[in-house]
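Render this sequence as a predicted structure.
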Amino acid sequence: MTFSYFFYKTIGAFLTPPGIFVTVALFGALFFCPKSKKKGFPSFSFAFFFALFLYALSIPLTARFLLLPLEEPYPLEIDGREGKAPVVLVLAGGIWSSDGSGTEFAMSPETLQRFVAGASAARKIGASLLYSGGYPEKAAEGRIEEMVRRTAERIGFSGELLVEGRSRTTWENFLFSSEIIRERGFDEVILVTSGFHLRRSMNSASRFLWSVPVRPLSSGRLEGDGPFIATDLLPSPSGLRNTSLALRELAGIFAYNLFGSLKDR
């Protein structure tokens, strides 16, 4: 990496969001610095630590540090089937209205990535494919099923496809999907979701599918484990987003474990 390229990236990083907010906060700290010495006003300290905090949240290095333990343990490929009647369970990650009238829906990029990975795994091992996820506030179950079957047709999946379109959370994904899995007599579950989401999902799976073997399959990772580069220290929208997702996921793991332990009492 040349110095001119790094300098160009640095200027852009600190003059566009979220880096521009770090820059403004630092200038605010410098502005309040003389006043704080005279009057004991704490604005300098607040502005400085706010800038430092936002900077730390926005750099890819922080996102990698938080995401690596969540994503690295889980495989990106599945070797083969271990049960006689396996099912690939895909957890949804969001949908959006594709026609403006709220009658036709499409998978978000994250959900589509998970669905494609799940369909590929199901095709590879000859398993059924179960999609789990809904949006009751906007889309009825029938609309969700239409979306899933339309997407399956577009990607060329022709195997058995089951749809659970009621769940709104990871907890409900397993609450409702476990009913289908037991009713259909599946004896193995391949769980597909984003890498950062798998630890919480596997914890939930152990509560609802304790009698069925569950194997994780990552549909993709937000951060790689490659070598450190200088731009990992520059604030970026993706850095802030990935750090936020990691913190949200860690909070979710804590909440699910707490909620689960309370329910077990």
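Summary. The mean pLDDT is 91. The chain has two domains: 3-70+234-264, 76-218.
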